[in-house]
Amino acid sequence: MTQNPFAPGAKRPSVTEGVFSREEVALANRNSGALLETLGLEITPTGTHYLLNHFDVPVLDEAAHVLSFEGAFDAPFRLTMDEIRALPEMTRPVTLECAGNGRAGVSPRCFSMPWMYEAVGTSKWAGTPLAPLLERAQPRSGVQDFAFLGADFGFDKGQPHYFGRSLTPDQIADLDVMLVWGMNGQPLLPQHGAPLRIIVPGWYGMASVKWLTTITALTERYQGFQQVQTYRLRKNEDDPGTPVTTIRVKSLMKPPGVPDWVTRQRWLQAGRVTLEGRAWSGGGVPITKVEVRLGDTWQDAELTGRPDTYAWTGWRIDWDATPGVFDLACRATDANGNTQPLEAPFDMAGFANNSVHRVRVHVAEAAT
Amino acid sequence: MTQNPFAPGAKRPSVTEGVFSREEVALANRNSGALLETLGLEITPTGTHYLLNHFDVPVLDEAAHVLSFEGAFDAPFRLTMDEIRALPEMTRPVTLECAGNGRAGVSPRCFSMPWMYEAVGTSKWAGTPLAPLLERAQPRSGVQDFAFLGADFGFDKGQPHYFGRSLTPDQIADLDVMLVWGMNGQPLLPQHGAPLRIIVPGWYGMASVKWLTTITALTERYQGFQQVQTYRLRKNEDDPGTPVTTIRVKSLMKPPGVPDWVTRQRWLQAGRVTLEGRAWSGGGVPITKVEVRLGDTWQDAELTGRPDTYAWTGWRIDWDATPGVFDLACRATDANGNTQPLEAPFDMAGFANNSVHRVRVHVAEAAT
C-alpha cells in the first residue's frame, strides 16, 4: 500500500481474480448485508437492512439540523426537523438494492465493496412527499437538475467531496421521491441517514441520499463526483457509459434447510420442502414470473403478492427433495419482459449484476 | 468446493495467506462489524452492534416462547416471556467482543469469519439477573455445569448441533449473568437473540447464548460442540488448549479526519486534532492506561470514564499533526497489568487477537 489514495487522480487498488484483498474484506466488514434467512419476512428486520456508506457515518444533532432549499428557486426556504415532521406524513414499504450488489460475481471485477447477493432490503419508510416542497420553493424555468447533498464527506479517486446526487425535473415528476425521517416505526438510525434522507423508490440505492442537508436547483447539469464519475454502466475504459438508474429484475431464495457454519451450504432431509423468497424490479414494474430450478428443470413458483408498488413480491414453490447435491436457483421476470440472466453481465465497476441466485443444497436420506 | 461439509469429520476449507476466499467474504458480508467512526459514542447505535451468528437467525414467536429449566434441578419450572418480563428488571451497558475479533490479523490464519478490528460493541441490555432463577430451581448438590441452549441449529465440521454453551456453578457465582429481553430501550431484535438471550458480562461473546430455550443442570461436564470442540486457545494441532473465557485488554481509535472510500485510510489537515476512542478488558477489570503512538513516541491519553463495570472506557488525547504519513496506534493496559501486544498473538483459530489498532493517516499542509 505505497499508493497515496488522496493524490489527485489516485487510482483504486488493483484486484486479483478469484481471491480478495484485506482491504476488500475490511469493506465487507463495515458494509453489512442482509441475512438471507429473513427473506421469509416482508419487512427486513431493523438492523439487518443492508448498509453501503461511502464515507464515515455522520452523527448529526437533530435539534440543530436544517434542510436548505438553495440555488435557482424563486422562493427558497429552510426547514427544521420539527417543521418537516409537521408536514403530511406517509409511510411506504420500499425495496432498496445497492447498485454494487452482486459485484463479487462479475469477472473481471474491480476494487470496491465485494457484495455477493445480500445488498437488498425492504423497510417501512416514514416521511413526506418531496414534490410539493420543490413546488413551494418555485424552481425557475431554466432549472435542469435538483442536487441532493449529504453531510458525509471523504475522498474517492483522490477527489474530496460530499456525497451528492441529482435528479432532473422530469425524473422528479415521474418518481415518488420521499423525504424520510423514520424507518420501521422508529426514528431513522444514524447509519441509515438520521435525521433526514431521501428515498427514491424503484432506483438503486445510490440515489437515496442520506444525511440530507441541501437541495439545490441548478440551471445547468449537476457535476458532482457521485453523479458523473461513478454509478455509470461501462463496458471498457473508453466507454463513457450510461447512468445507473432503476433496479434490474432480480430474485433471491431463502436458503432451505440448515447451514454449515462456514461454507453456508445447506443440508436437509429428503421429502417435501417449501422453497420461498422475494423478487423485485425497478421503477415499480411488477414481477410476473419466478422460476425455480429444481434439479435440471425450471418450474414456475406461485407469486404471493407485494405490499406496495415499490416493494418486493413474495414467491413459493413446493419441492419433493430426493437425496443428492443440488444447485437450486431462482429467476424472475418482470412485466416489461425482462428476465434475469444466468451469467453475470459484465460491467467495469461491477454494477447491476442481476444474475440468478444459486444455493447449494445437500439432501440426505430421510430419517426412518 | 468438492468437499462435503456435512460429512462426519468434515474439515474447514483451507486458506491462502495474504488473500481471502469467496466463502470468507460471504461470511464477512453477513456477519457485520461496528463502524469505527461511532467510537466517539458510549453506546453503539442500534443496528451497528457487531453480529456473529453461526447458523441462521431463528425468527421466533415471542408469544409461544418458553424458557425451560431442566435436568438436575429439584424444582424445575418453565417461564413464558410475560412471566420473565414481570421479574425484577435491570438495565446495564455491557461491552461485548467476538472471540474471533482480529482473526484476519493472525498468521497463519484459519478459515472462519475474517474480522479485522470491528467485532465489538456496547449496548444497554435490559433483563433480569439469572442467579435468583437458578436458585429458585434448586440445583442438586452434584451439579457441575449449567448448559444454555439456543434455538439456532446447524453443522460445523460435519457435526449437527444447536448452539450451546455452559457455565459452572462457581462461574455463575462470580459472574453477573443476565437474562435479557431488551436492547437500547427496545425489544431485542431477531438477529440479537429475540425474544430471549443471556449476557455474560466480561466474557467474549460466544458465552452470551442467543434465542435461549433451555437451561439444563448437569451432574457431569457439558460436552456440547461449541463448548469443547471450539472456542479453545490452541498453539498447534496437538494442543488440547484452554477455554476462551474473559476478554483480553484492548482499545480502538475513532479514525481521525476523513476517509478514502475504498482503502479507509484517513486524510486531515495539519494542526491540533483530538484523537479519541474506547478501551476495555474482561471480567470487569478497569483500564488504567491508554497510550497512543503519535509519530515515533507513545504518549498517555486521558481516560474519560466508563458507564459501568462491564462497559468500555473512553479516552482522548490532543495531537499536533504535522504534514506526513503516520501509522497511529493505541495500546491499553488494565488494572491487572496486562498490556496489548504490538503483534498478534498466534492462535490456531485466530481467537483473542488483542494486538494494537493501527490507523494510517495522511496529514496535508493546513489550508492558508
UniProtKB/TrEMBL annotation, chains A, B:
Keywords: Metal-binding, Molybdenum, Oxidoreductase. The keyword Nuclease does not apply. CDD domains: SO_family_Moco_dimer. Residues 249-363 form the Moybdenum cofactor oxidoreductase dimerisation domain. Pfam families: Mo-co_dimer (PF03404), Oxidored_molyb (PF00174). The keyword Oxidoreductase applies. Residues 54-225 form the Oxidoreductase molybdopterin-binding domain. Its cofactor is Mo-molybdopterin. PANTHER family: SULFITE OXIDASE, MITOCHONDRIAL (PTHR19372:SF7), SULFITE REDUCTASE (PTHR19372). This is Sulfite oxidase.
